[in-house]
Each structure stands twice: as C-alpha cells, then as structure tokens.
Amino acid sequence: MKIGIVMGSKSDLKTMQKAAELLSEFGIEYELRILSAHRTPKEAGAFANEAKQRGIGVIIAGAGLAAHLPGVLASWTALPVIGVPLSSQAMGGLDSLASIVQMPPGIPVATVGIDNAKNAALLAVEILALAEPALAEKLAAYRQAQAETVLEHDRQLGAND
After folding, report:
1. 26-61, pLDDT tens digit by residue?
2. Which DSSP string do the residues of 29-94 spell out, in sequence order?
3. pTM score, two decimals?
C-alpha cells in the first residue's frame, strides 16, 4: 500500500518533502502531488475519490492559510486523511491549524503540529502497520533507535556517573 502526499502549492514542497523522505526510509511508496482546494477543486476531488483504487491507504495533505485542502480531500474519500497545517506570515500557521482541526462532524481529519510533515508520515506509517507486520517491525525498530539516541545523549551528560 502507498501513501498520497498532497500540497496546495509548490511553496509547500520544502515542508512536505519531509514526509516523503521519512516514507522512503520505511520503504513505502508514495504519490506526491500539488493540487489546490480552490484553484483545482475538480482535480483534487478526483485524486481523493480515486486514491483507494490506485493503492493509496492514507492521504497526507498540507495546506496553509484557509487550509481547506485536507478537509476537501476527506470529503471525497473514506481513507484516513492527515492534515499538516503549514506556517504563514499572517498568523504563523495558527490559522491553518484551526482550519484543519475544526472539521464538521462526520468528516474527520487527523491533524499534526504546524509544519510537522514528518509526524504526519509517522502517523501514516502507524496506520499502514496495523495491517502489515513487516512494517510494524520497522516502526518498532525506528522507535527503539530513537530511544537509544536519547539514552546516549543522557549518558554523554554524565549525570549517572
């Protein structure tokens, strides 16, 4: 199964690329697209509506300002959609966060922190790992490596000597 990564404009690519990089670490295929909820609504709807047939299991959608893209995609599919609120000059991304978090009942969008495409990718990995034991093992190893890094940093402090 693969993951769809969608952003509203090319300026979002630097942030959303972090999701793609993490998925590559896990060996997960992904589709990377630029589709706008407002400028290409027909294409955005078609992408979400046809995602499952193309083998996509989760959609990660990054958007700033009004940040309607994750909600629009979620309205076209029953696949899990993870919204990444993107920072903006006007409100630092709080506007995007509020927009994505405040979805109407019945059309949920999971939401991560502002500009945190990496966490969106990890959440997508967790979702796919529910049905893929090999991926669950990779996720466990990833988490163990994170723990070992923290413990090594702790040892370097020498606080336990």
Report:
1. 999 999 999 999 999 999 999 999 999 999 999 999
2. -EEEEE--TTTSHHHHHHHHHHTGGGTEEEEEEEE-TT--HHHHHHHT-SS-EEEEEPP-TTTTTH
3. 0.94
